[in-house]
Write a structure and sequence with these properties.
globular, mainly beta, 487 residues
Length: 487
């Protein structure tokens, strides 16, 4: 008698539903926020038993809520799960464990009422490659104009005990005096203001970082965890989110590096968190996106930013040598492990956050693949639109850099060759559904997913934005990192 073994792949999504605070304008309170989980199947074949997706939701209160399976799942199929409609609860807070019979890409997306818009909130789901053991790091948390909401999920199979340590940039520690305990898969979701009220002498305003430690309650062994943050501006419409980091790498690739770029003067800042108990020496290198040549090294070719133990440095694009009006790519290198998140701000209302990225692993065919589970491009003038960027981080020029746009049913809509000429190391290439020809002249736009394939290691990022008529907020948008697919 034979037994068929079903292998499931898991991704984890923190659902941090958040409404505008009471500090925001009166009209903001009427905005309806919707939480969705976008998914994308990057496989080109169907499993013998057929493929499907299952989602189990976990409330912060401990209740577990399974939902009906999504099946059949076709190759390259993508879709959106509206959390509130599934659970009949628009204010759900907690986490979701998404399991599938294929390696699935997921994205958490939270959007406001189109008639009362805020920036969208985007961050990718977690899989085994970005789960932390014992510690997890959030390089940018604050209390002031933004009140950071922190979401932590227990990924261990045991009850765990959390320790939360806030740090100022100089490494001064502020310890949260209690140790929350979490059952398996459960979440701890709090605003910094709620946590700060219990910490003696906590500085306000605060702009620093957070170290989260996790131990098994019964054995004190290291436990696994993930964390993410989101912010909505008090008294404004800016919002963003990013994924935390296990903080074990000393080299991070940053797709965006700007100083007053374009008519909206977009500028980036990097928040670099030292994830060890010893000082770290850090350099930031900026590269020309066209030919990949080294443009600037900050603070200098033989100089370093010295970050104290558990401290943080902030590197502003305009203060680190990028010429005004330029857009580059960046690499942050350190003598020890660090975590890095970037933010982009403009004078027309745009504010985004994006996590640093590490080199992907090649598939069995030697190709590197990065996917984007949610790509939208509305043809209407003020619709939501996605712009994709890819950087070759390999040592050699990329002779293959293909981007495939897939409709929600998995059909190939368009393929664009971004390497008609070899793409040099550290050079960037961009695409969007309209420029690639993925929109029929009679269509309302594009909605689906994208998969990028290269013969060199690549990293990718998506920006989703829309134009508005709001005074001071002409553009609202957010960034999210491309997800690695190892075929």
């Amino acid at each position: 008698m034979s037994k068929r073994v079903l292998i499931l792949f898991f991704t984890l999504v923190l659902v941090l539903s958040l409404k505008p605070s009471s500090a925001q304008p009166a009209h903001a309170g009427t905005s309806i926020w919707k939480s969705t989980i976008a998914y994308f199947n990057p496989m080109d074949t169907v499993s013998p038993q057929g493929d499907e997706i299952n989602v189990v939701y976990y409330r912060t209160s401990g209740e577990m809520i399974p939902s009906a399976a999504i099946k059949p799942l076709q190759p390259y199929q993508s879709g959106v799960i509206l959390v509130g409609s599934v659970l009949f609860d628009e204010g759900f807070k907690g986490s979701a464990v998404v399991s599938a019979t294929v390696p699935l890409m997921t994205l958490y997306r939270q959007v406001s009422d189109p008639d009362n818009p805020y920036s969208p909130i985007l961050y990718t789901g977690f899989d085994s490659r970005n789960v932390g053991l014992a510690k997890f790091f959030l390089p940018a948390v604050q209390l002031g104009a933004f009140d950071t909401r922190v979401g932590i999920q227990n990924v261990d199979n045991n009850q765990v005990r959390l320790t939360l340590k806030f740090y100022t940039p100089d490494g001064t520690e502020y310890l949260y005096p209690t140790n929350p305990t979490l059952q398996p898969q459960r979440t701890f979701i709090k605003n910094v203001s709620e946590l700060a009220s219990s910490i003696p002498g906590f500085p306000q305003p605060f702009d620093g970082s957070l170290v989260i430690e996790s131990k098994v309650v019964t054995t004190n062994a290291d436990a696994r965890l993930v964390a993410a943050v989101q912010d909505i501006q008090a008294g404004g419409r800016k919002a963003y989110a990013y994924e935390g980091s296990p903080g074990v790498y000393n080299e991070w690739f940053m797709i965006s590096a700007m100083c007053k770029y374009g008519s909206s003067e977009q500028t980036t800042r990097y928040y670099i968190q030292n994830t060890q108990g010893a000082p770290a020496n850090v350099q930031v290198s900026y590269y020309d996106p066209g030919n990949g040549s080294l443009a600037v090294v900050y603070p200098g070719a033989t100089e370093y930013i010295q970050i104290p133990a558990w401290g943080r440095a902030t590197v502003d694009g305009c203060k680190s040598g990028i010429v005004a009006g330029r857009s580059l790519t960046g690499v942050v290198r350190s003598s020890g492990p660090i975590a890095v998140v970037g933010k982009t701000i403009s004078k027309d209302g745009l504010m985004t956050a994006f996590s640093g990225q590490t080199p992907p692993q090649a598939g069995s065919d030697g190709r590197y693949r990065v996917g984007f589970p949610y790509v939208v491009y509305e043809a209407r003038e003020k619709g939501e639109r996605t712009f994709l960027s890819m950087v070759n981080i390999g040592e050699n020029p990329a002779n293959i850099l293909l981007i495939n746009y897939y409709g929600r049913d998995g059909s190939l809509i368009q393929q664009e060759n971004l390497a008609s000429n070899p793409v040099p190391s550290f050079a960037k290439r961009s695409s969007n559904p309209s420029a690639a020809g993925a929109i029929d002249e009679w269509a309302a736009g594009f909605l689906g997913a994208a998969l990028v394939e290269s013969d060199q290691p690549i990293v990718g990022m998506a920006r989703i934005q829309r134009v508005t008529d709001l005074s001071g907020y002409n553009v609202l948008g957010e960034d999210y990192s491309g997800l690695v697919f190892i075929k």
